[in-house]
Amino acid sequence: MDKKFPISLHFALTLAGLLVALYMIFLYAPEEMTMGEVQRIFYVHVSCAWPALLGFIIIFFSSIVYLWKRAQFADELAHATAEVGFIFCTCVLVTGPLWAKPAWGVWWAWDARLTLTFLLWLLYVAYLMLRSYMVNPGRAANLCAVVGIIGFVDVLIDYMAIRWWRTQHPQPVILGGPESGLDPRMLATLLVTVAVFTLLFFLLVRMRLRLAAMRRELSEIRHVLAFKMSED
Amino acid sequence: MVNKFLFLAYAFVWLIFILYAWNLSRRQAGLKKELDELKTRVSDSSSAPASRNAGA
Predict the structure, then answer these.
(1) Which residues in chain A touch residue B9, judged by CB atoms under 8 angstroms apart?
(2) Where are the domains of chain A?
(3) Residue B4: its pLDDT value, please?
(4) Residues paired with A32 in a beta bridge
(5) Which residues of B, range 19-48, sit inside 8 Å of A by Cβ?
(6) What is the DSSP letter of A33?
(7) Region of poorest pLDDT, from A92-96, A98-102, A133-137, B50-54
(8) ipTM of the complex
(9) What's the pTM value of the predicted model, to 2 decimals?
(10) B11 touches chain A (CB under 8 A)
(11) Cα–Cα distance measured from residue A148 to residue B17, given in angstroms and rounded to the nearest whole number
(12) A34 has a pLDDT exceeding 60
C-alpha cells in the first residue's frame, strides 16, 4: 500500500482536494433560497457524517476478523479507525447544532437521528476509554471487538432513522426516494466534498496505523533487549 | 459579512483536524526518537560481546 500509494501523495491529493472543495462550497455552489448562506454548513456536516458511519463499519468488520483470526492488524485497524471516527463524529455533533440553531431555532432536538448519532459518539468514547483504561491489552482488544460488533447496530438504525420515521432532521437529499433531490451544482459540491473528506479520513487512519506499527516495533525491540540482558 | 454560524462550523472543523494531525505527528516523532535510541542500544549490545571475544 505504502509503495503503490505513498502517504505523501495521499497527503498532497487530500490537500488539493480540500482546496477544490472549499472553492466549490463558497464560490461554485448556489445560495439556498430559504436558509441563505448558513446552508453551506450542510456540505461539511454531511461530509463528516459519512466517515463517522464508515468508521464504525470498518470497526465492525475488523472486530469480526480479529475475534475470528486473532489478526493483530485487524485489531490495530479497528483502534486507529475508532480514534479517527471519533474526530469526525465530534465534528458532526458540533456542526449539526450550529446549523440547527439558525434553521430550526433550537440547538438540539431529541429526535431519532440526532439521538442515535449522539449514541454513536458515546460508543466511540466507550471504545477509546476501554482501550485507554484497561491494563491487559489482550482483554481490551477482545472487549473492544465486542463493543465494535454490538455498536454496529446503532450505525444501521442511525442510517435508516430518517427513512423510517418522520424526524426533525431533514429527509435524505440523495438516495432518498422520488421527492428527494438537489440542485446539480449543490450535488456536485456535496459529492466532491464527501470524496475529499473520505480521502482525509483514510489519510488520518494511515497515519494512526503507522503509529501502531512503530509501537509494535518498539515492543519487539524491548523484548530483544530484555532477552539479551537476561542472557548476559 | 460571513454568517457567524457558518464561520464557527468551518473554523471548528479545520481546527480539530489540524490539531489532531499535529498530535499524530508529535506522537510519531516521540516514538521515532525512542525507537532510534533502542536500536542504538541493541546494536551496541550485539557488538560488545564480539569486541570482548576479539580482545580475548
Answers:
(1) 41, 44-45, 94-95, 98-99
(2) 16-171+201-207
(3) 93
(4) A36
(5) 20-21, 24-25, 27-28, 31-32, 34-35, 38-39, 41-42, 45-46
(6) T
(7) B50-54
(8) 0.87
(9) 0.90
(10) no
(11) 24
(12) yes
